[in-house]
Design a protein that fits this description.
The protein has 165 residues and is an alpha/beta fold. It has one domain: 3-Layer(aba) Sandwich (Rossmann fold). The chain is built from six helices and five strands. It has a five-stranded parallel sheet with strand order 2-1-3-4-5, sandwiched between helices. Helix 5 packs antiparallel against helix 6. The longest helix has 16 residues. The chain is globular, with a radius of gyration of 16 Å. The N and C termini lie far apart (47 Å). Bound molecules: 5-O-phosphono-beta-D-ribofuranose. Its EC number is 5.4.99.18. It is an enzyme of class 5 (isomerase). Belongs to the AIR carboxylase family. Class I subfamily. Pfam families: AIRC (PF00731). Catalyzes the conversion of N5-carboxyaminoimidazole ribonucleotide (N5-CAIR) to 4-carboxy-5-aminoimidazole ribonucleotide (CAIR).
């Protein structure tokens, strides 16, 4: 088992990705889903990446969320090494505003899928919600919490816009 008995692994290429990826962590937290956040870089720690991806399933993870920026090879490389579903979050890079991250992650060759989300915060939140939806297929309590999350989100939307909100 992994250190925290977690079902979801959130991995990212650098400490600098955490300000984006923490949104995935907070969303999973809100839904009561055990998860573990790790820095795993395809380029700077390739052995750590290989070790993580090869053992991810056996260590109890069910879904992997992988965030990276720039030449964002992490989600694709991890997807190549594990049978688990991998969601890729393109982190907004300084040089190209995340366009580079997005294109690096989304254009996988047929046969090795990465479910690619939007650039940045929205992508991190939605990766967590997709992970939750997968886990909810086999967990009735979680399915109810996910329904409640969505209902609450709907209830928060005012019918009419107001000035200064
Ligand atoms: C990628 O390079 C990381 O995912 C990060 O988004 C980007 C820049 O990393 P740092 O130079 O900020 O560590 O591997």
């Amino acid at each position: 088992m992994n250190a925290s008995n977690a079902e979801v692994a959130i991995i990212m290429g650098s400490q600098s990705d955490w300000s984006t990826m923490r949104n995935a962590s907070e969303t999973l937290e809100e839904l009561g889903i055990e998860h573990e956040s790790l820095i795993v870089s395809a380029h700077r720690t390739p052995d750590r990446m290989f070790e993580f991806a090869k053992n991810a399933k056996a260590s109890g993870f069910k879904v992997i969320i992988a965030g990276a920026g720039g030449a964002a090879h992490l989600p694709g490389m991890v997807a190549a090494l594990t049978p688990l579903p991998v969601f890729g979050v393109p982190v907004e890079s300084k040089a190209l505003s995340g366009q580079d991250s997005l294109l690096s992650i989304v254009q996988m060759p047929g046969g090795v899928p990465v479910g690619t989300l939007a650039i940045g915060k929205a992508g991190a939140i939605n990766a967590a919600l997709l992970a939750a939806a997968i886990l909810a297929l086999g967990d009735e309590d979680l399915a109810e919490r996910l329904d409640a999350f969505r209902m609450e989100q709907t209830d928060k939307v005012a019918k009419h816009p107001v000035d200064g909100a």
